[in-house]
Amino acid sequence: MNEHGRTERNKTHANQYLMNKAMAEELESQAVTPDDKDLVINYYDSACRMFELDEYGKSQLSNCRKKLADYAADAGELKKAIDIYESEARKCLENNLTTFGAKDLFFQAGILELVRGDSITCKIKLQSYQNEDPRFEKSLEGSMFSKCVAAFDNEDEQAFVNAIAEYNEIKPLSNFQSKHLLTVRQKLARGQAGSMDLGGGAQAQEESDDDLR
């Protein structure tokens, strides 16, 4: 393909990307139903594919993929979101200028693994993140994820809430983190429901929910 042909192809890819991105952002600003969110995911997915084809658009691919992961997680496509966060974290580790951001992306992925509910997988992922990013283990995010994994494995709701509260005192939880950590805490609460006093249990659960908001 000659230079003119490559230029025209890149223009086509750029236009397709801009159209998909614009549609995703428009829907994102007003998405209120599951169908709307599915459309946002589809448009971001398409925009990512256009970025991958356009050598000049790859600098924007990461932001687009993280948006896609956010919406995938919100729509319950947890495995897809986890794969994207982990992939983007590994890309961060390849560049000294972005390596610090890897811990946040591994943390996002780790939270979603807790939502998926397999404690063995969570422990494997914790070890993997620590091995891949030497900074992760001693970071605020790595420390909290480690405590949450231990609490989840031990089915200890109070330890889980304490770990979140300690983190939140230093660095406020994002809406994403609060939403998905609350889902995990509710799973732990249901697991302990048989031993809870029904009169005081409801109040205790409500107070724990407030810690995650």
Tell me the layout of helices and strands.
Elements: H1 3-28, H2 34-53, H3 58-74, H4 78-93, H5 102-116, H6 119-132, H7 140-153, H8 157-170, H9 175-191, H10 198-211
Notable traits:
single chain; 213 residues; mainly alpha; Serine Threonine Protein Phosphatase 5, Tetratricopeptide repeat; 2 domains; 0% strand; disordered N terminus
Task: Provide a short characterization of the protein structure.
The protein is built from ten helices and no strands. The chain is mostly helical. It folds into two domains: 1-75; 92-213, Serine Threonine Protein Phosphatase 5, Tetratricopeptide repeat, CATH 1.25.40.
Q: Could you give me the name of the CATH homologous superfamily of the largest domain?
A: Tetratricopeptide repeat domain
Name the quaternary structure.
Answer: single chain
H/E element sequence: HHHHHHHHHH
CATH topology of the largest domain: Serine Threonine Protein Phosphatase 5, Tetratricopeptide repeat
Mean pLDDT: 78
State the total count of DSSP E strands. 0
Percent of sequence in beta strands? under 5%
Instruction: Give start-end ranges of low-pLDDT stretches.
Output: 2-15, 194-205
Structural class: mainly alpha
Classify the helix fraction into a percent range. over 70%
Radius of gyration: 20 Å
Largest sheet: none
State the CATH class of the largest domain.
Answer: Mainly Alpha
Tally of distinct domains: 2
Q: Total helix count?
A: 10
Estimate the global geometry from the Cα principal axes: globular
Distance between the termini: 55 Å
CATH architecture type of the largest domain:
Alpha Horseshoe
